[in-house]
What does this fold into?
Amino acid sequence: VKISLVYSPGVLDAEADESLTAAAMRMRDNDISSLAIMQGSELIGMLSERDIVQAVVDGVNPIRTRIGRYMTENPATVNLEDDSADVARRMIELGIRHLPVVEGGRVVGVVSARDLLTLEARAPESTSHISAIRAARGRAEGPAVIVPIASSGRT
It folds into this structure.
């Protein structure tokens, strides 16, 4: 199954000079577990819940500490045409749970381990697995949607 049928379009982003507190609040408020870190239109990193946990364990002040200190720089990415099984293997190899999806050099969404797990868990042996994903997400058609929001380690 191509990633274009599984990923969550739209991306919630942040900038490297924002605080970890601001990032954590944005993640909480939008019920997501990673942020694309952008510099203009360029993806420069990813910040995940794991990165924020690491900062807490390190004892840093999350109000004063910038995202750039804990983000994963130059993150791996996937394309809309990539096969979901290949993407799952890549996540396992890299030890990550989120990958930005790019098209034409532009971030268009994120695919998560949950997206891929849903595909596997809900998919009957036939090609109706896409319907199963949509049904699991409460949508009649199309991939799950993260509403795009403008800008205000391990993923």
